[in-house]
Amino acid sequence: MSDPSPVIDDLCRESEQLDALVRELRPERWALATPAPRWTVAHQIAHLAWTDRSALLAATDPAAFAREVGKAMASPHGFVDEGADRGAALPPHQLLAEWRAGRRALEKALRAAPAGTRFPWYGPPMSVASMATGRLMETWAHGQDIADTLRVTRPPTDRLRHVVRIGVRARDFAFGTRGLTPPAEEFRVELTAPSSGESWTYGPEDAAQRVTGPALDFCLLVTQRAHRADLAVRAEGPDADRWLDIAQAFAGPPGTGRAPKGAAG
Predict the structure, then answer these.
(1) How many CA atoms does the CB half-sphere of 166 hold within 13 Å?
(2) Which of 18, 37, 60, 202 has the fewest CB atoms found within 10 Å of its own CB?
């Protein structure tokens, strides 16, 4: 992406939509349990604030960010929860203020970055567009957990094209992180946009294996916010079918996913 401004703009819109969902919550509702184990509404926002601060460090102070990576390596299975726990312990008004300040500072840093800039990250270095896309994906996904907790239906928007793009590009990572050999051939992915109704397509048109369905359902799948059994995403071919069982758009170890609706526990 030559100009990252459109995805940065969409990140800001996604953040504002989530902000509108939580800004009027009574303090006790910040303590509601969300579908993520052990995480309340406050944990969800605290995680976004923590990750925004990490991204800001990566963009403005690589040495300080390298120290944060060292801390993460020292506690690879706990550093994310530890960051969320610290933020969730704050009074809601303070947490909300810190999230707003952090995301606005990050926006400013991303817009000011020279063309071709690559930021260090917990995995490979990230371009400005990739960093903004990753933040949008997380904002949408954690916002989905909050919306589910509050029993609110958010109208899906075509901003989901950014989440779709990450999910498609992360196909081989999803196989590799589970110790599986990624398929040698590309899949065809054909998804229907939620607002415009456009067809978003990836991969060769004549691919032997394909994935089809609503873009919203694909995004819920690759962010592991819903179980495949509850979604209208379909696969043709054994490798594509396997991918839908293990897909993830986020870095890190495989997630546990969500149980099908109606499952015990």
Answers:
(1) 27
(2) 37
CATH class of 5-135: mainly alpha
> Could you tell me the residue ranges of all domains in the chain?
5-135, 160-246
| Cβ atoms of 186 and 176 closer than 8 Å | no
What is the distance of C-alpha 202 from the center of its chain? 20
The CATH number given to 160-246 is 3.30.1050.10
In angstroms, the CA 214 to CA 96 distance is 33
How many angstroms separate the Cα of 65 from the Cα of each of 106, 250, 253?
Answer: 14, 20, 21
Q: Is 141 helix (H, G, I), strand (E, B) or coil?
A: helix
For residue 80 the two structure tokens come to 């994310």
Residue 12 CA to chain centroid, in angstroms?
Answer: 14
Question: 136-152, pLDDT tens digit by residue?
Answer: 999 999 999 999 999 99
Q: List the one residue out of 94, 250, 226, 233 whose CA is nearest residue 147.
A: 226
Indicate the pTM of the whole model.
0.94
